[in-house]
Structure formats: structure tokens, C-alpha cells
Amino acid sequence: MRFYLITAIATLIILLTVLSFRQNVWQTNALPYDDEQLGLDDQITINFSHVVAENTPKGLAADKFAQLVKEKSQGKINVQVYPNGILYNDENELAALKNGAIQMIAPTISKMTEALPSWQVLDLPFLFENEDQIYAALHGELSKNLLAELSIINVHGLSFWNNGFKQIASKIEPIQTVEQFQGLTVRVMPSDLLVQQFNLLGAQPISTTFNDLYKKIQNNEILAQENTLSNLYSKGFYKMQPQITLSNHGLLAYGVLMNDDFWQSLDESSQNVITQSLKEMERWQHEQAVALNKINLQQLQDNPNVTFHSLSELQREQWAKTLQPIYQFYENIGNPQFLTQLYKDIEKTNGNF
After folding, report:
1. Residues 6+ positions from 311 with CB-CB distance below 8 Å
2. Per-residue pLDDT tens digits of the chain, which is 353 residues long
3. 3-state secondary structure at position 164
4. How many CB atoms are closer than 10 A to CB 198?
5. Of 50, 127, 226, 318, whose Cβ has the fewest other Cβ atoms within 10 Å?
6. Residue 212's beta-bridge partner residues?
7. Are strands 155-170 and 224-227 parallel, antiparallel or unpaired?
8. Residue 47 to residue 328: CA distance in whole angstroms
9. What whole-number distance in Å separates Cα of residue 228 and Cα of residue 166?
């Protein structure tokens, strides 16, 4: 009995010694797990949701932004981009941003006009003659005033991105005269000014989300739309609305927005990385939009099922004259000083891009 007791005690002592030795070895030679874990805890993730395809001006810009931020922050800030409305559509993305479900969005200007009516200044038709004027409007004094207005709704404004000139795509016939708009069902974004635009033309404006648009065209609920060539091509709208009028009547642009609480939570260094990345890519983004719309134009022109039409000088004057009252409409619902500032920004350009 005594023998077994001594043996058990000896075995216990040996076991404790071995375990103690292994613990010391583990502590000495283990990988720096704590340091790595601390690095992961320090990493900042920005969830960036948008509703268009990756191969569009906004999609390319979102990916470029993510790349620049990662490089400038040395991996500290990670931007996760969710395209094609994977997380939220263009009706609920602003609410998701404000409640902190996501950190960044880039909605069209028109989507912001319900909360900020003055933003409709960029929805006015026949404002711009060339891309240089668009760049001046999106990155001049007006843009600073528009971004500052976001504080009203507790959102932090960062920048504006260009998509390009809007055209008219139709399912049945080419739209060239004002008379051809009569009774036509046309998709519009939720902007009072855009609704008024098509009311003045005699059309029947129908508001629908970007994600639902394809199905409504298929069901013949919507026969025409205004959109950029890049959106018409990337989403395949041209397959159902192959009559495209190159009207260049309006601008499609995006506001780059961030949840304000999230922005305020960032240290100054991280904020600088974000603002510097956006500043660095301003001209790049604009030129990408211009180039991509040209590429998509050529691709669509090569498609035998798509037919392009242009406006004669007389037809363009007819459109502009019919839509002239919309400027007074904006001054009644928006900020007339913004329109004055827009004209000043445009006048600073020399007309060459």
C-alpha cells in the first residue's frame, strides 16, 4: 500500500514538472498572438453600400477609394464595398446610413432632395454644355455649400462623383420632340423637380427604385427613362429600351456620404486618410466617368438592336423652352443663391475639358 502511495506521489510530481516546463516553453516560444489580436482590434472597417454595378463610374470609384484608403492607412482602414444593392437599395440606404447599419453610401443627388430640397439645383435641365462645366459644379464653391447642408440631417458629406450626362431611352419609339412625351410613362428618381420636369413635357412620371426598374420595364409599366449610357449598358436596360436619344439634357451625379457619428469617432489621422484619398481621386473619377460613357456608347452603337437618335437644334430649343418654368419652380422650393453660385462656378471654366 505504501509502495503504491509513494509511486502515485512521484508520478504526480513528474506530471506537474512536465506541465510547468511545457507552459514555460509555450510562453517563451509562442507566436505573438496578443500583438496580432491587438492589431485586429485596432483595424477600422468601413462598410460602403451602393446600388450600381462594379463596372460603372460609381462602382469603379468605390473600389479605387477602398484601394487608396488601404494604402494610405497601411491597412489600418479597411473599406468593404457592397455593390448592386446587395445590402440596401436606393430607397433605404440613407436610413441605414443614419442609423449606423452602414458607414458609407454614394446616392444620386436626386435621392437626397426630399431631405435637402436645395440639392435639386443639380437636377435642373440644360445647365451644362460640357464635362468641364460639370467638374466645376461638382468640385467648386457650390459643392462645399451643398455638402455643408448635410449637417441638417446629421450626415457627414465628403465629396461628389460624376456619372455623366443623362439620355432618354425608350421601348417603343425614339423620343425627339416634346409631343412624343405626351402620356409616356417615364421612370424618375424621387425628386420633385424631376417629376415637374416630365410633367412639363406632358409625360407620366413614375418613381421606382433602381433595383425594381428592370422588372417594371419588362412588365410594360415604364416605357422610357432618363439615364446615363453607363447605367443603360451595365444594367442591360438597352435590351428592353433600345431607342436611345442622345439628349444630354441633365446630369447624374452622386454625393459621397458618411455616418456622422462614425466620422466623429475617427481620429484625425484616419479622417485625413479618407479626405486625402477622395481629393486625390477627384479628377481620376471624373475622367473615368467620361471615358466609360464613351466606351459604352461605342459598345451600344455596335449592337444592331440598338438605335441612336440625336436632337436637332430646333428640337433642343423646343425642349429647353418647354422646361424653362422649372427654374422658377426651383427658386420657389430650393435656394436661389445655390443657382447663382452654380452659374459662377460654370463661368470660371473655359469650356475645354
Report:
1. 176, 245, 246, 247, 319
2. 444 444 455 555 544 544 443 444 333 333 343 444 435 568 999 999 999 989 999 999 999 999 999 999 999 999 999 999 999 998 899 999 999 999 999 999 999 999 999 999 999 999 999 999 999 999 999 999 999 999 999 999 999 999 999 999 999 899 999 999 999 999 999 899 999 999 999 999 999 888 889 999 999 999 999 999 999 999 999 999 999 999 999 999 999 999 999 999 999 999 999 999 999 999 999 999 999 999 999 999 999 999 999 999 999 999 999 999 999 999 999 999 999 999 999 998 864 44
3. strand
4. 21
5. 318
6. none
7. antiparallel
8. 40
9. 4
List the alpha helices (DSSP H) in 30-116.
33-42, 57-72, 93-98
Torsion angle of C-alpha atoms 166, 172, 174, 175, degrees rounded to 10? -60
Cβ atoms of 228 and 168 within 8 Å: the answer is no
- For residue 33, give Cα distances in angstroms to 39, 76, 151: 10, 18, 42
pTM confidence score: 0.86
Please name the residue that has the C-alpha cell 456622422.
260
Q: Which amino acid is at 13?
A: I
**Cα 216 from chain centroid?**
22
* Whole-number Å distance between alpha carbons of 233 and 297: 9
Are 243 and 170 in contact by the 8 Å Cβ rule? The answer is: yes
Q: Is 182 within 8 Å of 203 (Cβ atoms)?
A: yes
Place of cell 449637417: 151
